[in-house]
Fold these 2 entries.
Entry 1:
Amino acid sequence: MAWFTRQKPGVESGPEGEEKHIRTEGLWQKCESCSQIIWKKTLDENFQCCPQCEHHFRIDARARLELLFDGEFETFDAGLVSTDPLNFADSKTYASRLKSMQEATKLSDAVISAAGTLDGRAVNICSMELKFIGGSMGAVVGEIITRAIERSLATRAPLIIVSATGGARMQEGAVSLIQMAKISAALMRLDDAKVPYISVLTDPTTGGVTASFAMLGDLNIAEPGALIGFAGPRVIEQSIRQKLPPGFQRSEFLLAHGFLDAVVKRSELKGYISRALKFFCG
Ligand SMILES: [Zn+2]
């Protein structure tokens, strides 16, 4: 519960001399990076980035699509659901985990596939939803992305995949790992057909997604400060028995070491992709 004095915007003024407090819960957000208290409306106007330190807050799959498309877009394969091939259970069953995630996110799985225009050019965009079991990739994510690639092949509309993921979905075991090969093979056909594919890596992009389609773009671009890697830093430190350098596995470090083509601010992302597609397609 948050309470603020009248000095802050959004607080009603009372009679002269009287200190009046009202609840402003939900109107403010603290920056995870610089601790600045930010008015949510300012965040909305600033692409969900901190106005002081430019920390990029995470945004959901739908907000991402609205950011990149010109206006309306058509979605595909929204009805695909996992069959729970391993009949998996940990602290709770995978079936019940899926059901609660579907209710919470109003999505059938961790990606939205959509078609529309970006600066007037027809494109297909797949946008991953981190809130759906950590944006993990199982059979449904693999199939939805593969179908989007096949639509790009058929129509020659460029493909953009925005990753936000912890990697392969543990609850589908080897079935989820197969998706890496399946999507990569489809991307090879897209490459043979010379249809551009731009990979956008957002915070976080890790595991089997980094090890496959997120790094296979004709351009691999990331948002500032995004965690990008395959294994987690603790696992790496334990296996190589060395301390990792500061900023390891963040966008800027990866750019400096040749793993990325660009780090682009969210406010400039659409314009950057538009110019890149103009370069690729003419
Ligand atoms: Zn900040």
Entry 2:
Amino acid sequence: MGAGLTTRMGRDSVSCHGSDLQLGLPLTREQACQRIRCSNEELPALLAAAVEAKQRFKPDVISYSRKVFIPLTNLCRDYCGYCTFRRDPGQPGAHTMTPEEVLEVVRAGERLGCTEALFSLGDKPELAFPEMRETLQRLGYKSTLHYLEAMCELVLRETTLLPHPNPGLLSAEWISRLSAVSPSMGLMLETANDSLLAAGAAHDNAPDKVPAKRLRTIEEAGKQNVPFTTGLLIGIGESAEDRVDTLLAIRELHRRYGHIQEVIVQNFRVKADIPMRHWPEPTQGEMLRTIAVARLLMPQMNIQAPPNLSAPYYQDLLDAGINDWGGISPLTPDFINPEKPWPHLDELRRRTESKGYTLRQRLPVYPEFLPNVTSRPGRLADKVLAAADPNCYARRAA
Ligand code: SF4
């Protein structure tokens, strides 16, 4: 890499391994693996190419979704090495929200101009814990997914917010059922590397983190044309090449089905009380390289990175080609990373504008994916249309 990325990318812009960056063609795997390990001297040229690609895709705008975070239950049958969200029954803080609690949060969000109700929850806790089975029985539901479906329906019926569930692995039947009560849904692929399931690794006690199973859920959503959010988690034991392969796996599913509305690049952050508390965090440089490579692998994709996990310098992520900040709540904490508060929306706008962009509030379903939902007449389509402005962003624009 001694010649410097500027020189090499200049050559690539004519032709390199069949790719042409100036024409906006995506990188090959080999090119992506080179760039994700580029030197500090080479980094500015990589970032410039990524921003150029972002500007060709969505010029001058950075979007976000104003949301409330609903931790429907923090009981989970998995034990990911980096998770502070999950609890076992009886542990301090273990909680399954009641319908009244859900509505109370959503109504408060409604008053603050939120348009997304993000349901985050543990994966199938009733399979591991009789206490969860009892809770569900008391609430009148057969499973956590039945309860989630009912709460999405409640939010849709009673409020102006749009549900976006993140419940873990889903069967074809459950993707179909949840897509009737939510315009979009999500599942982080996290990594395509199944060696992270080995003893001592991040996913060694997380049966729902088998990459092939997660890819199946994402593929099934594609078959059903459901706008889908996914992404990778960096710094959990994977290599830089694994990051490229994870992005390529997402790109391939999107090539086949066209349903991936957003790719999140999330960085692992250390917390005091997790099994991985002694692991090093990925550097800002690794984040920038991963985001830039994601942008160049998928020039026409919405690429998101959470600002709170890169504070205080989160505005620098804009230099790597993201076009979205993800869900930001003016009300509820980030229950997944409670020690990292979301920035105030005024501050987010100020920092976004300082880089020359306009901040725009979107719905949980991205503008270009609205037709996937509104083409199916019914309450969900009506609610989405009522929440959208003429450009398919949120009517309550920031
Ligand atoms: S990251 Fe998700 S699946 Fe893993 S333990 Fe936490 S809640 Fe469960």
